[in-house]
Amino acid sequence: MFASTMASECLQLRETLLSYHSLSESEWSIAKKSKDVTVWRRPSQEFSGFLYKAEGTVAETPRRIMDFMIPGPCRMSWDSLMTSLEIVKTLDQGCCVVKYTTAGQLWNIISPREFVDLSYTCQHERGLLSCGVSVAHAELKPGLVRGFNHPCGWFCVPTEDPTLSCLTGFIQTDLRGKLPQTAVDSAMAAGLLRFIHDLRGALRGDTD
Q1: Is the per-residue pLDDT at 39 higher than 60?
Q2: Among 49, 51, 61, which Cα is nearest to 167's?
Q3: pTM for this model (two decimals)
Q4: 131 and which of 18, 153, 157, 175 could share a cystine (Cβ 3.0–4.6 Å)?
């Protein structure tokens, strides 16, 4: 029964991310931009915050990029926001429940958070989709606020240039706690830019 429920949850999660991916450009407004990464936002239909979209190219294959992004030791080695990661349960190939903590942000205006997510990775076109959503979990580390990820995910597909892949993320995180909306918006947009920049650096520095 549990496996069947999780399979249904994964299918629904994938369909939700595909619906975000099909939204037209006119439905987004720019939240933050660097030379080669753009972050957009629009009101979330899941909660009172925003759904963010981030996009940039990465000089690697989709499979190699996802190996760095999915839950595991490799992710911990380069993601500067993540301070701990534990795979609570492996459900199937490409599917697990993961518990992780994030560092404080904006001079600790946003204190460290803990999340427990269902993580699911699958094929998408000629690339991959890795998506997640928070699930119920009773245990909470003392001194942490439990955040909640509404359906989130990253699409990674090849481009016409065989040396580049296009990485597109959709993130809608309820950080919870009494936080100024301006602080949340600033942290989310800046964090997505940093995520793609850090990922590129990790891939360039990998010598395995």
Answers
A1: yes
A2: 61
A3: 0.93
A4: 153
